[in-house]
Amino acid sequence: GASTPDALLEIAVRIAREAAGTARRMRAEAITDVRTKSTDTDVVTAADRAVERQVVDALAAERPGDGVLGEEYGASDSAGAVRWILDPIDGTVNYLYGLPQYAVSLAAEVDGVVVAGVVRNAATGEEWTATLGGGAWRDGRRLSGSVRTGLDQALVATGFGYDPARRAHQGAVLAGLITRVRDIRRLGAAAIDLCLAAEGGVDAYFEKGLNPWDHAAGGLVAAEAGLRVSGLGGAAAGGDMLVAAPPALFDALHDALVELDAAGGP
Ligand code: IPD
To answer: Residue 51's domain is classified under what CATH number?
Structure first.
């Protein structure tokens, strides 16, 4: 099939909706099979694995030859230019507790550039989409981010990794930031945080330690909503740091994060 951003988005949306349905149905049943991954707080449920398997199978049927990078099963090789990046359930801890902030995140990359992405909140059905150059959307409404200016008026979302040493550093950064902003939110799903920033539901978002599947789709949604999405000091957004903020807020948040050494530490 065609590999235009629109064609890839159409597939991503269809598959993400089915996957979100599976996640929701499995949530209604008792969650008994909970294992830990990198640390004792990094959990994975049978649903994470089942949803990833479902998406991988659907992509293989529809787009044989494309590569897939998924959170639970890792990478599969790609014969062509297209690679899919999947977080079957972003916000696994929310999922475990039944807090309605967990999402299927699916993005399509062509030659290493993310060109289409969908984030679907599986609990609420909220769905954010974007294509490269085509804008960011939710329910037919084009998104443009917060118009607030001034870091002291900004509601800033963030998240924490699972490694205790990293968390200690992230806590110290927040101790320095909390007196400079309106408030902080830790909602528990990076993909949703990015989409909220895209629609102005929070003013900005930052996090250290993200993996590609956490930010590939949501990062495109935020960028297409007009936010600046990058690392610190002109670096690309990635594991060291991702900051997403409207242009009028970006520099103030960026400079505060540099001053607080937010990209430093473990
Ligand atoms: C996590 C969530 C969380 C963020 C972590 C991620 P997971 O993803 O997005 O909000 O702070 O960095 O690892 O484990 O729920 O898929």
So the answer is: 3.30.540.10
Q: Best of 71, 85, 89, 90 to mutate for ligand 1, by most ligand atoms within 8 A of CB?
A: 90
Distance 134 CA to ligand 1 centre (A): 27
Question: Does the Cβ of 92 fall within 6 Å of ligand 1?
Answer: yes
- Could you read off the pLDDT tens digit of each residue along the chain, which spans 266 residues? 789 999 999 999 999 999 999 999 999 886 777 888 888 887 788 899 999 999 999 999 999 999 999 988 888 877 789 999 999 999 999 999 999 999 999 999 999 999 999 999 999 999 999 999 999 999 889 999 999 999 999 999 999 999 999 999 999 999 999 999 999 999 999 999 999 999 999 999 999 999 999 999 999 999 999 999 999 999 999 999 999 999 999 999 999 999 999 999 99
- Domain residue limits at 114: 5-134
- Euclidean distance between CA atoms 142 and 150, whole angstroms: 24
The ipTM value here is 0.97
Nearest atom of ligand 1 to the alpha carbon of 161: 12
Q: Are residues 160 and 120 in the same domain?
A: no
Domain count for the chain, please give it: 2
Q: What's the 2 CA to ligand 1 centre distance in angstroms?
A: 32
pTM here?
Answer: 0.97
Ligand 1 contacts CB of residue 188 (under 6 A): yes
Atom of ligand 1 nearest to the CA of 191: 9
